[in-house]
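Bumping my old thread because nobody answered last time. Still need a sequence for this structure:
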């Protein structure tokens, strides 16, 4: 607790501090291993079964636990050490994936056994990720200065995209050179490395439940904390509507990436060796989009909301054109542009959510957001696979319908005042607000009183008015 207090009292002053770099380093390594593993697994399932429905089922199994546990994970992130949560999560994911590697090495001919255990690994990893994601989303805000948060999110997003660019492009080649067993083994070891790196992070987290008196703490239940997160989201009209809109956009965009292996075979008519390359091109686009998000910073009028919504519209038009593009070069350009629109949107919305919520409830809010945003994802994954099989892999039709609905939702967002007001945030005012909250006139939880000049002036003005 002393370490936490000291860090809260002395917040980070620069972006590239030791704590943030340790976190970024560990996550970057594990993400690279995961992307190589993921793409190799898609190729393996496609080659072994040729079923789009099975790919959809894998997505459903991975999404349902996240739907059920993310809000609970968010509550854990506010009540317990976020550092411990992310370390345990990485260790559990690493050991689970290593167990799958063991089966690949010793039961390589038992396809049914491997697929069954793969689904178990996917489900368990999803449960663990439900606790990991809210914890790390809330933790990043405490590891960097508030005015550098957008850049930190860009770096985090860049880590994801760089790992996808290299991981996906290498996986197709490595799959045929070293095989799926070794790729799975490497992925498991990267999570163990990530957990080791995170051991050395000093987490500046002030755990409210542990700092309160025993009487207050006993009156607060886990259920109460959970409800606070839901109520916080539901009472904010702009946040609530934005999440609902995002749910439907996510639902419609799911088939685009999920069915990309079949788009490659049916529309482009090329073999699976190009699959990693196309995924990498899309990841490169997201990387560029995330960088644009930190460069394009509009603070006046409705400009911020308009730019974000414009990118949503462009993101919706892209799959419509993509479905009818049978040239691999033009398809690659469209996938790149689609990534740019998506990366820009993701970083902006994540930063806005982080700045709009206070530290002591941030984990719960991200948990609720993750749960509500993922409500329709399992259904979308299942339907994508089934519809693809029923329509005999009619990719242009599926992509076209998805894009049209996404564009319609973007138009609705454009004319919704609550959502636009929520998206239009003055970063500077939020930073000042947070700084005033973190440096109270008199903080009884610290061994020494912290004097804040601004708070003192307000106190003096109040005395004058009372006189």
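Sorry it took so long. Here it is:
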């Amino acid at each position: 607790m002393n370490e936490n207090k000291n860090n809260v009292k002395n917040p980070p002053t620069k972006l590239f501090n030791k704590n943030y770099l340790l976190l970024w380093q560990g996550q970057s390594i594990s993400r690279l291993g995961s992307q190589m593993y993921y793409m190799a697994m898609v190729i393996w399932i496609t080659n072994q079964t040729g079923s789009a429905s099975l790919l959809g089922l894998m997505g459903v199994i991975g999404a349902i636990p996240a739907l059920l546990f993310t809000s609970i994970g968010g509550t854990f992130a506010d009540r317990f050490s976020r550092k411990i949560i992310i370390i345990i999560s990485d260790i559990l994911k690493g050991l689970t994936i290593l167990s799958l590697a063991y089966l690949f090495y010793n039961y390589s001919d038992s396809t049914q056994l491997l697929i069954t255990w793969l689904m178990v690994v996917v489900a368990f990893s999803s449960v663990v990720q439900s606790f990991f994601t809210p914890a790390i989303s809330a933790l990043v805000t405490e590891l960097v200065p508030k005015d550098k948060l957008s850049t930190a999110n860009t770096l985090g997003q860049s880590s994801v995209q760089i790992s996808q660019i290299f991981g996906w492009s290498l996986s197709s080649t490595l799959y045929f050179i070293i095989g799926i067993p070794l790729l799975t083994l490497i992925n498991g070891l990267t999570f163990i490395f990530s957990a080791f790196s995170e051991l050395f992070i000093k987490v500046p987290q002030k755990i409210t439940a542990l700092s309160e008196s025993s009487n207050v703490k006993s009156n607060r239940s886990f259920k109460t904390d959970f409800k606070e997160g839901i109520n916080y989201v539901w009472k904010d009209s702009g946040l609530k509507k934005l999440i609902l809109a995002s749910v439907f956009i996510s639902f419609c965009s799911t088939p685009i990436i999920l069915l990309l292996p079949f788009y490659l075979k049916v529309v482009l008519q090329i073999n699976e060796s190009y699959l990693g390359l196309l995924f990498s091109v899309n990841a490169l686009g997201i990387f560029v989009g995330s960088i644009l998000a930190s460069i394009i910073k509009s603070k006046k009028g409705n400009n911020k909301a308009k730019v974000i919504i414009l990118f949503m519209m462009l993101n919706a038009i892209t799959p419509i054109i993509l479905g009818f593009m049978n040239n691999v070069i033009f398809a690659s350009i469209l996938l790149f542009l689609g990534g740019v629109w998506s990366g820009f949107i993701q970083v902006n919305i994540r930063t806005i959510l982080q700045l709009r919520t206070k530290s002591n409830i941030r984990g719960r809010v991200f948990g609720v957001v993750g749960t509500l945003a993922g409500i329709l994802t399992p259904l979308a994954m299942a339907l994508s696979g089934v519809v693809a099989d029923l329509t005999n892999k009619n990719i242009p039709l599926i992509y076209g319908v998805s894009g049209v609905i996404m564009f319609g939702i973007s138009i609705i967002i454009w004319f919704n005042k609550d959502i636009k007001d929520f998206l239009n945030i003055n970063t500077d005012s939020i930073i000042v607000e947070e700084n005033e909250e973190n440096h109270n006139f008199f903080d009884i939880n610290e061994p020494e009183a912290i004097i804040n000049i601004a708070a003192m002036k307000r106190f003096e003005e109040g005395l004058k008015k009372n006189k």
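The domain at 11-205+223-435 is CATH 1.20.1250.20 (Growth Hormone; Chain: A;). Let me know if any region looks off to you.
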